[in-house]
Amino acid sequence: VVPRAYLAGPEVFLPDAAERGAAKKAVCREVGLEGVYPLDPLDGRVPEVDGLALFEHCLALLDRCDLVIANLTPFRGPSMDVGTAVEMGYALGSGRPVYGYTNVATDYRERVTTEPGWLVEDFGLVDNLMCEGTVRRAGGPVVRVAVAADDPAERLADLTGFREVARRAARDAAGRTPG
Fold it and tell me: FRET pair for 122, CA 20 to 30 Å: which of 43, 61, 74, 140?
């Protein structure tokens, strides 16, 4: 049985989201995983445009997967996509391994500006401690890659870190016994 990996990340918001998902799924096939993208059909139905229906769709897809690979690259600001963070927490709560990668290698502290007197976490992590902590608690690593791309979409969707973490996830999944 080929392990199924839910591919969490903000690439779904890019104009070429379907192509980005197909590229990630191709990498998964290369390493021995079946990639499941949030925009994939479920039981022959495509995801609805309604927000709450899409939420249920994504969780139903995730429920059919063995693990999660999450893109922690900053999106729309200094932090990762909040929807991806929710999917990671859901996976942790349901006992699934979570693997993370980011295409921005700088620490969270270096990317955040703050109001005078407000504290910013300075733990050398890629994002808020609860985000990286979720990945590590769920058994996966966080892979950091410094992608030099001027176009934010290209930086977000670069597959270098994804490829590395997918290989690790496939190797780990091969060593786990089902059940």
Answer: 140
Q: How many residues are recorded in the chain?
A: 179
**Architecture of the 4-175 domain:** 3-Layer(aba) Sandwich (3.40)
Closest-CA residue to 31 (of 5, 55, 49, 13) = 5
List, in order, residues 6 or more apart from 14 with CB less than 8 Å away. 20, 153, 156, 157
- Cβ of 80: how many Cβ atoms within 10 Å? 28
pTM above 0.85, yes or no: yes
Token readout for 84 is 């991806």
Distance CA 161, CA 176 (A): 23
Q: Write out pLDDT tens, residues 84-112.
A: 999 999 999 999 999 999 999 999 988 98
